[in-house]
Amino acid sequence: MSSRDSDKVAAIHRELHDHLPSEPALRVKALESLLVEKGMLDSRAVDAWVELYTEEIGPKRGAQVVARAWTDPAFKTRLLANATAAIDEFGYAGPATAHLRAVENTPRIHNLVVCTLCSCYPFSILGLAPAWYKANEYRARAVREPRQVLKEFGVALDDAVEVRIWDSTAELRYLVVPERPAGTEGWDEHKLAALVTRNAMIGTDRDLGRRTAR
Amino acid sequence: MDGPHDLGGRQGFGPVAVDEKEEPFHSDWEARMWAMDHSIRYPEDWNIDWWRHSRELIHPLDYLTRPYFDQWMQTYAALLVDSGIATVAEIVSGRATTPGPKVEPPLAAANVRKAAHHAARFDRDEGPAPGFGIGDRVRTRAHGIPTHTRLPAYVRGRNGTIERYCGNHVLPDASAVGRERAEPLYTVMFDAGELWPEAKGRRERVHLDLWESYLERT
Prior knowledge:
The complex is a heterodimer of chains A (214) and B (218). Chain A is mostly helical and 214 residues long. In chain A, 46% of the residues lie in helices and 10% in strands. Chain A folds into two domains: 6-41; 59-211, Nitrile hydratase alpha /Thiocyanate hydrolase gamma (Nitrile Hydratase, Chain A). Chain A has helices at 6-19, 24-37, 43-55, 59-71, 73-81, 83-87, 123-126, 131-134, 136-141, 146-152, 189-193, 198-202; strands at 100-104, 109-114, 162-167, 173-177. In chain A, the strands form two sheets. A two-stranded parallel ribbon of chain A has the order 1-4. Chain A has a two-stranded parallel ribbon with strand order 2-3. In chain A, helix 4 (59-71) packs across helix 5 (73-81). Chain B is an alpha+beta fold and 218 residues long. In chain B, strands 1, 2, 3, 4, 5 and 6 form a six-stranded antiparallel sheet that branches. In chain B, helix 1 (28-39) packs across helix 4 (68-82) and helix 2 crosses helix 4 (68-82). The chains are: A mainly alpha (214), B alpha+beta (218). At the A-B interface, helix 1, helix 2, helix 3, helix 8 and helix 9 of A face helix 1, helix 2, helix 4, helix 5 and strand 3 of B. Strand 3 of chain A pairs parallel with strand 5 of chain B.
């Protein structure tokens, strides 16, 4: 049974700190073999998850959803009303997206997603979070100096543009729907999806038009 | 708890490392750890909130410096020791010297694809009717609690506006200590100028998803 005792768990962490090897790869390997011996883990399932999230599940899914929203106004309405149901039209609902909300950029509004308390991220639609999203720097600064952070990503925002920051403190997850670039009239969904970057769906990228020149 | 995890608004960290290769996993051990998290069959009394709290309890120096997925490893290790499932010596060696817990067989590879379509829900039909309406002005609780909570320090005692009612969701503060209770959850909007002295007049708004017991009417 779990103790629910914060002091006890903190003491265990200190003990682990003193006894575990420093190298993360060694720690993780030992944990995996122990869990297998304890009957709590099948390593072949671990292989299967890695393969799935390497080959198949990733930000390409989100890009496809965004491209659909750009080309199909009825879908966009559904996406903004209930993003979990909308992504599941593609079969994309899954880990961390049971309560997904899509927020839309406009010429006057820019959205930026962060999780200051841990690193919550909509896995089943964007894949693995980038390291910077999980890093102290981003988690600390995105809510306080978003324009500076955006500048570091190469996004210069006019002061007149409102920044809406979404700190995922509960089980809701957020997907930014970037603006469709000008000059893409008549493009099909597939071609449009190739313009949509992972960072644009987190909010650390904005002007996707620079990629239309390709 | 007022731990090192509560990073919103903390200063002095420096620039974000934006030049990162875009790839799902940067190393094999990260991939193994992430995938293990999705595959482990754990005892019924573990839950996401107790897990998150146990990560918050990593020593501050380790929390701020150890790699992200290494912290996941250490959190699982701590939970195993806390539950009496493994000793520190077993975790160090990777070899079991005592039998494992009585749990269902672990997730099989053949069922991973199905699991990848399972979206665990945290909303519940039960719980009180929402006490706040959209547009209501609210003030957040002024103090933290010593155990797990999802009210970050940077929004405590601040005035905001109810932007949306999200349904009744499981309250992490309760489930982290083993009690499931659903409460109205709201998206609350704060003007940046209410949160940060230097942000007055800036067109910036910060939204957080907060439970009813974190809020009072102003």
